[in-house]
Every structure is written in C-alpha cells, then in structure tokens.
C-alpha cells in the first residue's frame, strides 16, 4: 500500500497547515488536538523513513509543554492576584510571523513568475552589464527565505534583545555602504552572515529592508554561485550613484516614519 505524506519546510509550516485545513481560530488553538495530530505526523514520518530535522522534535516538546501547562488546575484566587499569560501566546505570535513571511515569499515568487513571462531576453540587457557575473538566477524570494531562517534560529539565541536599540533603515544603508565601500565589485559577502551579526530583531529587520532598498536601486546585487547555495551580496553598478545625493537617505527615512 502506498502512503503519501506531505513534506513541510519546517514545524511551523506543518502547524499552519493543520490549523488552516481545519479552519481553526489561530488565537484559540485546541492544543491537545493539534499536538496529537502533530505527533501522529511525526510517527508516520518515522515509519516511512522520512528524515525530520531537530526543529520538529523541539516543536513537539514545546507543544507537549504547552499542553501540560494548560491541563494543570488553576487556583481561581491565585489567578486573580497573579494572572498568567496564555501558554499559547508565544506560539501564536511565531505562527503569525511565519505566515507573514511565507505570504511575502509567495507574493515575491508570483511577481518573479510574472516578470519572467513578460520580460524578453533582449529587454533584460537594460538590467545587466557586460561585466556582470553569469550567476544563477537569485530572487527576493530566496532572500526572504534566508532571512526567515535566520530569524527562526535567533529565537533561541540567549541575550538576543538589547536595550534602547533605535537602529533605522537608513542607519543600515549607511552600514552597508561602509561595509562595501572599499571592497572590489567581485567580492561577495554572505547575506546570512550579515543578518546573524546583528544583535536584535529590529536590527535584522532594518538590515533586511535596507538590502531590499539597495537591490532595488541596483547599488547591491544578489548572487548565488551554486544551486541551493548561500546567497551573497556584492556591489553593483549603481553603488556610487545611490549614495551621491545627500537627500537620498532623508527621503528613505521619511518613507519609514
């Protein structure tokens, strides 16, 4: 008998699929039912020799922990004095954030498909130079997936948030300018490494938006030399021009206020 088991990019993908298929209110997840279905999926995967990453096991432990906390009897009087946060709150926030990034990635993927159908090879010469490297096609979809993976890993990093972190998108554009200013056009910096250098979620998000702005202006280019390899950033033809106008960063700052 052939059994088909759907594959997922990660545990949050699996949980979202379970929730959406059953039309469950994401703010009121029946944790016992979802945990049972999640564990059933893992059991079937093991039976079919599907290799699941450690993040699936970690999520299973998280679900069981949330379930146990919700099953514990509560003292009504103690609850009045010290009300506890719903044990599902952090999970819900992670699911919603994952869904937002997934939607953004899908939107960018659709945009790429439309552009590929519209632009001809002759039209693409306006966006490439004679000295451009013949790299594999890299899209913002790939960059979103890289950024999403960094954010997921950062959730378990100790001492992650720093106080009074007021970094902005223009700050990160200046950071990238200084980083690439003295580098040759051929030098590539791994995007994942740049994101992981940041000490807070806000800094990561601002850096991501700064990269998008500079790629749009052709100041930076995305590069991927191997299929499924790391995405890198390098200087592009519009690097100097992007920072030549003194009003440029002011306009970007206004756009993010």
Overall outline = elongated
Report strand order across the widest sheet.
1-3-2
* Strand residues, percent: under 5%
* Helical coverage, percent range: 55-70%
Which residues sit in consecutive blocks of at least 5 with pLDDT less than 50? 117-137, 159-164
CATH topology heading of the largest domain: Arc Repressor Mutant, subunit A
What is the H-and-E element order?
HHHHHHHEHHEEHH
Could you describe the 3D structure shown?
The chain is mainly α. The relative contact order is 0.09. The protein has helices at 11-21, 31-47, 54-71, 76-81, 89-118, 140-154, 169-181, 191-196, 201-216, 239-242, 248-255, and strands at residues 189-190, 220-223, 232-235. Strands 1-3-2 form a 3-stranded antiparallel sheet. Helices cover 56% and strands 4% of the residues. Mean pLDDT is 77; it is low at 117-137 and 159-164. It folds into 2 domains: 11-81; 119-255, Structural maintenance of chromosome 1. Chain E (Arc Repressor Mutant, subunit A, Orthogonal Bundle), CATH 1.10.10.580.
Please supply descriptive tags for the structure shown above.
Arc Repressor Mutant, subunit A, mainly alpha, about 55% helix, elongated, single chain, 2 domains, about 260 residues
Write the layout of secondary structure elements.
Blueprint: H1 11-21, H2 31-47, H3 54-71, H4 76-81, H5 89-118, H6 140-154, H7 169-181, E1 189-190, H8 191-196, H9 201-216, E2 220-223, E3 232-235, H10 239-242, H11 248-255
Antiparallel strand pairs: 1-3, 2-3
Helix pairs in contact: 1-5, 2-3, 5-6, 6-9, 7-9
């Amino acid at each position: 008998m052939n059994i088909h088991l759907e594959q997922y990019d990660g545990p949050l993908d699996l949980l979202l699929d379970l929730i959406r298929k059953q039309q469950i209110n994401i703010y009121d997840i029946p944790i016992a039912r979802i945990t049972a279905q999640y564990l059933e999926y893992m059991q079937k995967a093991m039976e079919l020799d599907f290799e699941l990453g450690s993040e699936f096991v970690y999520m299973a432990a998280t679900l069981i922990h949330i379930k146990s906390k919700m099953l514990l009897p509560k003292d009504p009087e103690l609850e009045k004095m010290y009300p506890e946060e719903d044990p599902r709150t952090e999970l819900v926030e992670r699911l919603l954030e994952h869904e937002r990034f997934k939607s953004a990635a899908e939107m960018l993927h659709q945009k790429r498909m439309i552009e590929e159908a519209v632009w001809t090879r002759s039209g693409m010469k306006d966006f490439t130079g004679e000295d451009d490297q013949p790299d594999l096609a890299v899209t913002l979809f790939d960059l979103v997936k890289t950024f999403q993976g960094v954010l997921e890993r950062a959730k378990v990093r100790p001492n992650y948030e720093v106080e009074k972190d007021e970094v902005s998108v223009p700050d990160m554009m200046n950071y990238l300018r200084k980083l690439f200013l003295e580098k040759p056009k051929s030098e590539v910096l791994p995007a994942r490494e740049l994101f992981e250098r940041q000490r807070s979620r806000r800094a990561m998000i601002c850096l991501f938006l700064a990269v998008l702005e500079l790629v749009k202006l052709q100041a930076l280019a995305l590069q991927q030399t191997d299929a499924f390899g790391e995405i890198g950033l390098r200087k592009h033809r519009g690097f100097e021009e992007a920072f030549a106008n003194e009003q440029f960063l002011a306009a970007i700052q206004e756009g993010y206020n």
